[in-house]
Design brief:
The complex is a heterodimer of chains A (455) and B (174). Chain A is an alpha/beta fold and 455 residues long. In chain A, helix 15 runs antiparallel to helix 16. By secondary structure, chain B is α+β, with helices and mostly antiparallel strands. Chain B folds into 2 domains: 91 residues, Orthogonal Bundle (Arc Repressor Mutant, subunit A); 77 residues, Glutaredoxin. In chain B, 37% of the residues lie in helices and 11% in strands. Chain B is built from 7 helices and 5 strands; from the N terminus they run ααααβααββββα. Chain B has a 5-stranded mixed β-sheet with strand order 2-3-1-4-5, covered by helices on one side. Chain B is elongated, with a radius of gyration of 18 Å. Chain B starts with 23 loop residues before the first helix and ends with a helix. Classes of the chains: A alpha/beta (455), B alpha+beta (174). Bound molecules: flavin mononucleotide (FMN), iron/sulfur cluster and FE2/S2 (inorganic) cluster. The site of flavin mononucleotide has 25 residues of chain A, from strand 4 and helix 17.
Chain lengths: 455, 174
């Protein structure tokens, strides 16, 4: 069993306590060197719940929204939408029932391991962020929608919720402000699509995780028809700092690097010397993150990288100089996504990796709309034949067409566009690798059609 | 151990699908769960998980039992039970191995690790060992990509796991 213990996964930030200061590392400065959970006493000793005390009853919900808008905390779930802007669109007022605040802790994006750290080691920061979010949005109740596999995080959150309730940070009349709010932990049972915010609401309500049409947006009509705000774990963990130190401080964290404010949990995985996670100013270039990871493993060189998960587009080594923020990466035909880099070495096959990615998206499709349900397995079939060197003339054009059919505006939710992005960017940057897989002349009009499904 | 057995082979694992009775404690837990939501339907996934925790999987008879406990339709419960990948509608082994097959693990050795599991256990994804000890399933990125290839056995997460670790790792699970 000793060896089992040494193989146990433990999430960890690769930054010393000395580097992590309260003014510069709002998300992680409290984290303990031994990687254990920060309990309530520890959290309170490190300024915990100060933002709740200073905000609730002292500032109006509108003030909180304004501060969040000015700070421009962009959604860390991958979309990059301003949280303050989202909150300003939540329906509230006379005759409108108090709604829900839902924390999206479904983290399943391939290559992403950031929310796990915050959930396991610092659940009180999330709870504090949720209380502030609930206050701003007039939410009566909160849910933490946690993927079922995050067992350690569930234990951590359960303990923290009990501690917070016991100490009066949750429940009625929080911190003597007259504001009531409580949170329940909701654990999922698999399926990547649950992370899409409207599918998440379907799942929370106890149904199959099929997405819903927008509009109405969740902020207008979400869980059980009530105004519902869905935010990512990291987004919500930014709120206490913003409310404590202000929008200007938050904007200043990124300095000259980026128009976006704040810090970001960045990370790298793949064949690097020291894969891991760091809290850095948003807009830090990929190069610096790769250097922190000790560079590529000995003898390996970088061919391509994904900036923020499987649903982002491939970038090249030359793009490592760019600041990793939402707008800059968006202009390169990719997306910042979750900000956790996946690196691909020179000898790793882009076609194989893409086959792996598209198989993931095909399996995880909820099956609701045709381009996604049928187009993804078809894409996988073609990639498999190219991988075996049995592709046909015309396959690349077909893949290009499929990438278009899976793209934005053609499907019910952003799952298929997410699958389209690595496909179209791989075709753009690595066309020769696909061409090498073509060995057959085109079978006229596909007399022997490529079967769909059964992946 | 070369023989492969599919999980739905009724001769290997006794099924208690017929004549299912909801355990009293579980029934209470399910009713408790209802209290967390505006509508009883929302407790459905947790109810399935409660049953699964006790039985290892969700036997057929549990579906109407849960529907009755929550006062919702049988079809709704079945619809949910068949949608989610971590709800097992067939018997599984005593320990479920969830092997991450997503991109970062793919780039750090998933293929050889999966090959070692199939060799060592004599089963592929979706199958259970004849002794009913292990079921092997693929899983979405486990959020452990910095230590890929990663996997879970029951509630424990491991990574990075090399093929030569497999035999000893599994010894810890009877
Ligand atoms: C297929 C799919 C999966 C998603 N998975 C997640 C997820 O696991 N976690 C998350 O925070 N956002 C996920 N999102 C984004 C959410 O839909 C939503 O934009 C986000 O939770 C909003 O929070 P934010 O604005 O704070 O980022 C996903 C989106 C799609 C299309
Ligand atoms: S795009 Fe895919 S995941 Fe989204 S609704 Fe359509 S089938 Fe479902
Ligand atoms: S890709 Fe395997 S844990 Fe993330």
């Amino acid at each position: 069993m000793a060896s089992n213990a040494s193989l146990r996964y433990r999430c960890q930030l690769w930054q010393t306590a000395r580097e992590r200061q309260p003014e510069t590392h709002p998300l992680t400065w409290r984290l303990r060197e031994d990687n254990t959970r920060i309990d309530l006493d520890d959290y309170l000793a490190k300024d915990g719940y100060a933002a709740v005390r200073e905000t609730l009853g002292q500032q109006s919900p509108q003030d909180v929204i304004e501060t969040m808008k000015t700070a421009n905390v962009r959604g860390r779930g991958g979309g990059g939408f301003s949280a303050g802007m989202k909150w300003s669109l939540t329906m509230q007022g006379e005759g409108i029932p108090r709604g829900y605040l839902v924390c999206n802790a479904d983290e399943m994006e391939p290559g992403t391991f950031k929310d796990r750290l915050l959930l396991e080691q610092q659940p009180h920061l999330l709870i504090e962020g949720m209380i502030l979010g609930a206050y701003a949005n007039n939410s009566a109740y909160g849910y933490i929608f946690l993927r079922g596999e995050y067992v350690e995080a569930a234990r951590s959150i359960d303990k923290a919720l009990a501690e917070a309730r016991e100490a009066g940070w949750l429940g009625t009349d929080i911190a003597g402000s007259g504001f009531d709010f409580d949170i329940a932990l909701h654990t999922g049972a698999g399926r990547y699509i649950c992370g899409e915010e409207t599918a998440l609401i379907s799942s929370l309500e106890g149904g199959r995780a099929n997405p819903r049409t927008k509009p109405p947006f969740p902020g207008q009509s979400g869980a059980w028809g009530k105004p519902t705000v869905v935010n990512n774990v990291e987004t919500l963990c930014n709120v206490p700092g913003v409310m404590r130190h202000g929008a200007d401080w938050y904007q200043g964290l990124s300095g000259e690097r980026s128009d976006d404010g704040g810090t970001k949990l960045y990370g790298v995985s793949g064949q690097v010397e020291r894969a891991g996670l760091w809290e850095l100013p948003i807009g830090t270039p990929g190069q610096e993150i790769l250097e922190r990871a000790g560079g590529m493993r000995a003898g390996k060189s970088l061919k391509a990288w994904l900036p923020g998960g499987g649903s982002t587009g491939f970038l090249l080594p030359e793009h490592l100089e760019l600041p990793l923020d939402f707008d800059t990466i968006g202009k390169q035909g990719s997306r910042l996504g979750t900000g956790l880099l996946t690196v691909v070495t020179e000898e790793q096959s882009i076609v194989s990796l893409l086959r792996n990615l598209e198989s993931f998206f095909a399996r995880e499709s909820c099956g609701w709309c045709t381009p996604c349900r049928d187009g993804l397995p078809w894409t996988v079939k073609i990639l498999e034949s190219l991988e075996r060197g049995e592709g046909e003339v015309g396959d690349l054009e077909l893949l290009q067409e499929l990438a278009g059919d899976l793209g934005p505006g053609k499907t019910f939710c952003a799952h298929a566009p997410g699958a389209s992005m690595p496909l179209s960017s791989a075709l753009k940057h690595f066309r020769d690798e696909f061409e090498r897989g073509v060995s057959h002349p085109s079978r006229a009009a596909h007399e022997d059609p490529i079967p769909v499904g059964n992946v | 151990m070369n023989q492969t057995v599919s999980t739905n082979d009724p001769t290997t694992i006794a099924s208690d699908g017929d004549g299912f009775v909801l355990n009293e404690e579980d029934a209470r837990a399910i009713v408790d769960e209802r209290g967390h939501y505006e509508q009883p339907q929302a407790a459905c996934i947790e109810a399935l998980k409660i049953v699964q925790r006790r039985h290892g999987w969700v036997p057929d008879g549990a579906i109407p039992a849960i529907a009755e406990a929550l006062g919702i339709g049988v079809a709704e419960v079945e619809g949910v039970a068949t949608f989610y990948s971590l709800i097992f509608r067939q018997p599984v082994g005593r320990h479920v191995i969830l092997l991450c097959d997503s991109s970062s693990c793919f780039l750090t050795g998933y293929d050889t690790l999966y090959a070692e599991f199939t060799r060592h256990l004599g089963i592929r994804f979706g199958q259970t060992t004849p002794d009913g000890r292990f079921t092997l399933l693929p899983v979405c990125c486990l959020g452990a990509c910095d230590r890929g290839p990663a996997l879970m056995i029951g509630e424990d997460t491991y990574g990075p796991v090399a093929p030569e670790d497999v035999a000893e790792l599994l010894e810890g699970y009877e």
